[in-house]
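Meet the record:
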Amino acid sequence: MIHRLDEEDYENVRPLFRELDFNLIIAAVIEHTSPGRIYVDDVSKPRTAFLCSVEGYYLAGNADNLEFNVSLNRLIVDEIFAGDTVRPHETDVAIGFHPDSWVSRMPAIFKGRLPLTAPRRHYVCTKLKMSDWKNRLPQGFEIKRVSESLIQRPDLEVPEHLTDWMKINWRSFTNFLRKGFGFCTLHGNKIVSWSVTDCVSGDTCEIGIRTREDYRRQGLATLTATAAVDHWLSRGGRSVGWHCDENNTGSIGVAEKVGFALERKYVHYYACANAAHHLEEAAQMHLRAKRYREAIESYEKFFSTPQEELPIWLRRALPHEMGTHYFRVAFANAAIGKDEEALTYLDKAIDNGWFYIDYLKTCKPFKRMHGTSAWNRILEKIEKHLNAD
């Protein structure tokens, strides 16, 4: 069986999550500073626990409790995948766990979905790299602490992502102002970069960073995050945490420039609520692992999914992304020597807006096609589109 704990009993599971305490959100949920839910096998003496938070899902304790695992699968499929989540509009369930024996239980927990893997990194900062960061701000920009008066300025363009972040992670803007903090970089009447606490526990916090696309590659994210870290450490905070995906080179670069040091690498297992979205994610995972046949199979199933079965956000995104998806299938086919299929998907990629001719010429799987009439036709087709633009 599986039981949902009352909030006053959250402390009972803290020992189970001790090995996962590098995820500060766990302590924040247990201490009621961040929203969350906790499910256990036994309310009075829990041996297995599943914690749901706005920053992810976590499993701890005995992995061999078959009854709990079966019930957990039903909870995920029937409730969480159906939209009953701590974080609104969540599209997947990503689980971190301890001990490692949970790995072999993931297929049962995600029964009906192939468990996907997301390599992650955890960084910690106890000292800034740039003590003179205030002098590095470009002319025309200023950094300010997030406050009620700032957010309510009638002339200021405040990103929805920023206000949502504070409300979701802290239940309300008022609660955020009392227990959390954040800094933002302003340019004229716009907030263009912002770094906000995800959660706080004792003398430790975790932060994230976001910058408007049209203001990236100017060092603003580094300066904004540095301001947040400086605020915490200069007021007696012991450390600041930072989590990011292994392939998020931008986030990794910002963290290391600020002064964060890699504390560990870890892996989350995840599954998407929507079956078609899961196929898309599975295809990309297989492709990164060079499992080309599996990538092709997943993509072809994804392509055959009726539009009405896709989530609305994915339907809206697909017209701009289909060219890239078709190219990936062309790449996978070429990698296993299926040239005819590769050329077919290259045609589809071009028809859907994929025109990266310089990149195509450097891709090794296509090298043996170079100089053939079919290859020349592909290049001419791309050039025709580029010239038309």
Notes: The mean pLDDT is 95.
